[in-house]
Amino acid sequence: MPRRGENIRKRKDGRWEARYIAGKDENGKSVYASVYASKYQLVKQKRDEAVRLLELENITISQDISFEQLCHSWLKSIKHSIKESTYAVYLNSISNHLIPYFKNINLKELKSEDLDKFIGVKAEEGLAASTLKMIFILMKRIIQYANKSGYCSLEGITFPSIRKDSKVSRIMSSYERTIFERYLGTLNSSFGAGIKLCMYTGLRIGEISGLRWEDLDFESEIMHVARTVIRIKNVQHNKNDMEAKTKLVVVSPKTADSDRWIPIPSFLTEELQKWKGDDNCYVLNGKEAPMEPRIIQYHFHKCLEKCNMDQFNFHSIRHGFATMCIEKGFDMKSLSEILGHSTVSTTMNIYVHSSMQQKKLQMDRLGV
Q1: What is the pLDDT of residues 298-353, one digit of tens each?
Q2: pTM of the model
Q3: How far apart are CA 342 and CA 258, in angstroms?
Q4: Rounded Cα–Cα distance for residues 79 and 86 (Å)
Q5: Starting at the edge strand that comes first in sequence, how are the strands of the sheet with 260-263 ordered?
Q6: Where does the Tyr recombinase domain lie (predicted)?
Q7: Cβ-count burial 96-107 (b if 16+ within 10 Å, e if not)
Q8: Could you count the other beta carbons within 10 Å of the beta carbon of residue 109?
Q9: Is residue 280 a contact partner of residue 212, using CB atoms and an 8 Å limit?
């Protein structure tokens, strides 16, 4: 029976349903939406939160707009022009970093010094330089949106430069690669063959997760990187909700350059063919649903343990591949395209590390 005046009722399946006005149709008639929860208080709180967010989304730019309202207005303006995964990343950064810090600052009085202080606070919290850089990109776009909307003029704001992370990811040595490859061979599985494919093509963890057998052309010995798998924040989740906070999505690659064709090393073709399944099945597990990145990372660490090796992040495989290619004389343009980078400088600055052995060889040339 509905709670009087609240539009809340208990359904036959035991769940509580709360309805609220989500907007108007073209005839001016109210359009309703519903939220659900296991308890009355939870569904009421969930409904109230949905209404609050709706109000933030539907604000009209005015002189009284808060920073939080400005952020939600900007998010609404871009929501349908970007991927769901990108939107989730933006929302997470804004909710966790920008709004908590800047919500009490009057936008018209925002100064460059405020951004300097923001960097200091976030650096002390341990945020990586790459994360700070991405947050500042969002901040610039939000300020540009405020200027364009005529709310305020923040043209004088300057953004301080952010130092690159000085820490370089350690990659496997030649000896460690050999030991690890031998162990992968003993697994006698498509998982082992798939990880070895990453070691010789530099695929990202989400890309190998999303690789299906239909993407591999064994006759031409090439593969198509057509999708990536990531776990993102569920933007529909409410803190009092019973639904998952995150969800797994299969999306197009990271950028246009990441959608690419890569040659498969000939010595891997035969090993991969042994495990070929149906075209719509995924390479790593042979199933119609992908093995998600955190599970891949887990099994990768287990393999390292079996080899009695130090722990590496899965992404270090990509770093190691790029470095190995440079050591073997790859031209930078080809390597950049294989990795899916838009520029050669990205490849050089981020993914290429000289090994101590390579440095020694270069130093020994001084005596020749």
Answers
A1: 999 999 999 999 889 999 999 899 888 888 888 889 999 999 988 888 787 776 65
A2: 0.70
A3: 8
A4: 9
A5: 216-217, 222-225, 260-263
A6: 170-364
A7: ebbbebbeeeeb
A8: 8
A9: yes
